[in-house]
Each structure stands twice: as C-alpha cells, then as structure tokens.
From TrEMBL:
Record membrane topology: Multi-pass membrane protein
Protein name from the UniProt record: AI-2E family transporter
TM helices/strands, residue ranges: 25-46, 58-80, 148-173, 221-239, 245-270, 277-296, 308-341
Residue stretches in coiled coil: none
Highest rank taxon of the organism: Bacteria
Length: 355
C-alpha cells in the first residue's frame, strides 16, 4: 500500500499508456454495444424470412451500419454547407457594415441627423477598425495554419483509431455468441466457480443495461428533435425540419449536444432573421429545460429501470468525473449498479430471514 502511494504518479502514467494502446479496442467494444441495438432488431426481422435466415447476421450488421452512419452523414450533408454559407454571409455583412458606418460619418446629409451626431460623438475610425481586423487575420494566419495542421494530425489519428475500432466491432458482432462461450470457459477455468459466475452475471447486467440505455437515448433524441421541429413550425422559424434533425442527432450527446445544436441552429437562422434567431435560442433553452428535467429522466429511466432522481444524479456525477464521456456512461453504469445492489440486497435480506 505504501509503495503504491509513493509511486502513484508512475502507476497512473503506466495505466494511461496502457489505455492509449488499447484505445481502438475499447472504441470497438463501445461501437459493438451501440450497433448491437439496431442489429438485433434487423436480425430478428430477417430470421422470419426463410430465404434470408442463413444470411441474417451479415445483412443485419450491414443494415445497422447503414442506418447509423446514414443518419449522421445525411444531417452533416444538409447542415454543414448551410453553416459555412451563413458564416461567410456574417463576415461579409460585418465588413460591409463597417464601411457603411464610415460613410455615414463623412456624409454631410447625415451630419445634422441624430444618428450622424451620435456617430460623430463616438469617434471611431470604422475603416481603421476594418483594416485592423484584416491585419489581425493575416498576422494570425501562420499560427492558424499550424493549429490546422495539428488538428489535421489529431483528426487523422482519431480516424485511424475509429476505423480499427469499427473493424473490431464488426468482428465482435459477427461472433458474439462464440466470444461469450470462450470468455465463460476462460473464467471458469482460471477463477473459482462462484467468482467466475459472479463476473459473468455482472457483465450480462452491464451489457443489457447499456443496450436499453442506447435504445432510450435514441427514443429521447427523436422526441426532442420532433418537438423542436413542431415548435419552430408554430413560431414560423426557418429551417425547421433541418434544425430539428440536427437537434435530434446532437441530443445523442448528453448535455453538450444540446448546446451544439443551439449554436449551429442560431447561426443558420441569424442570416435570415436576427429576431427569429433570438426567438429560436429562447425557445430551445426552454425546451431543453423541459427535456432535461421531465422527458429525459422518464424516457431513459423507464428503459433502464432506474428512478428519475438517480438518472439526474448519474448525469451530474458522471459529468463532473469524466466530462461528456462520463455523462454518456454514467447513466448505464448507475443503472447496472442499481440492479446489482437491488439483487444483492434481496439475497442478503433472504439470508437474514433464514438465519
């Protein structure tokens, strides 16, 4: 124990290095748990068709991959060009607005008006401000290029890790029954029977809980995206179907995803009507409060048999410990712990009664 405390920094460093080495495999395990939800649905359906029964597993994996990646790719193709266009338009409007303000200061016809006198009192060199902005962008261009190169390298590494994880996930999904049998044999061969059975039971509870959590999270995202679209249509806010789909997809990321959807949607609406953008932000903030405190605990909590109060506690504690990943994994981890503690408590009570 004393040795561990003295060398805690070295132990943590070794653990982090090991986690970095197996990161693609961990990504593969998480992807396998996620894709297993739609794959199981497709597989059950395909097994009812006599001609497709022997090919149900590979077809189900392909359909699950197409469904998940198709949703994300579709939303990206629809939203990203509009966001780029909106940002360009905002930059153009900003530059043109500075030029117009400079012209208003020098316009003799406006000099005697209230706006002209107000601009004259402010005494701002609008053209100089525009020039300074352009010079700042040029001066930062070198640093920006270095940052872009670094980000591109990190992105490439992430893509490679994700690709390896995806291939590993496909292998897991293809032979998940065989992997379960092999893991069971290894645990029973090298560990005491009772302890091995306990580990298998814990893994089974965790897997089932995570599967139900993914199903609940997807249901909650569909509800939030639909409510967002309906509300935007009622308030006559533009891009309602597109932003509704975006909010639904980003809602799969706990807490952080809601802010991403709000910011991107507001940028898109801002170029069309600034007032509508303000209305959208207020509307979505109210909707997120309702969703976070009423819909999310009920929908996700009912799927994983976890009371609403513990769902909120798991999201809060998981977010403080591990950020967005902690928020994502906190709820299924709390649900698994809740189910295991409930079983252990029932067995303890039964043994106390008999004793």
């Amino acid at each position: 124990m004393t040795f561990g405390f003295r060398h805690i920094s070295s132990i943590v460093s070794v653990v982090l290095q090991l986690l970095d080495l197996v990161k693609p495999l961990l990504i593969g395990v998480i992807l396998a748990l996620i894709f297993n939800v739609p794959m199981s649905f497709f597989e059950r359906y395909l097994r009812t068709k006599p001609r497709l029964r022997n090919k149900s597993r590979p077809l189900a994996i392909c359909l699950a991959l197409i469904l998940v990646f198709g949703i994300f790719l579709g939303v990206t193709v629809l939203v990203v060009p509009e966001v780029v266009k909106a940002v360009k338009l905002i930059v153009q409007i900003t530059g043109g607005g500075l030029e117009q303000l400079a012209q208003m200061e020098t316009d003799s016809a406006l000099a005697n008006t209230t706006a002209g006198q107000y601009l004259e009192r402010i005494d701002i060199d609008w053209l100089g401000l525009k020039t300074q902005m352009e010079e700042w962008v040029k001066a930062r261009s070198g640093a920006l290029v270095n940052q872009v190169v670094g980000a591109a390298g990190s992105l490439a590494g992430g893509v490679i890790s994700f690709s390896i994880g995806l291939i590993f996930a496909i292998y897991i999904l293809s032979g998940k029954e065989c992997l379960k049998r092999q893991a069971s044999r290894v645990l029973h061969a090298w560990l005491p029977r009772k302890f091995g059975d306990s580990l298998i039971h814990v893994a089974s509870v965790c897997s089932r809980t995570f599967r139900l959590f993914i199903a609940g999270q997807a249901t909650e995202a569909i509800i939030l995206g639909t409510l967002c679209m309906i509300g935007m249509l009622i308030l006559r806010i533009p891009y309602a179907p597109m932003i509704g789909a975006l909010v639904g997809v980003t809602a799969l990321i706990p807490i952080v995803g809601a802010f991403i959807g709000t910011i991107v949607g507001a940028i898109m609406i801002l170029t069309f009507n600034p007032f509508k953008a303000f209305v959208f932000v207020v509307f979505l903030l109210i909707l997120q409060q309702i969703e976070g405190n009423m819909i999310y605990p009920k929908v996700v909590g009912s799927k994983i048999n976890l009371p609403a109060i513990w769902v909120l506690a798991a999201v809060t504690i998981g977010g403080n410990l591990g950020g967005p990943i902690g928020m994502l994994l906190g709820v299924p981890a709390a649900s698994a712990a809740y189910a295991l503690l409930k079983e252990a408590t029932a067995e303890r009570e039964k043994s106390n009664i008999h004793s």
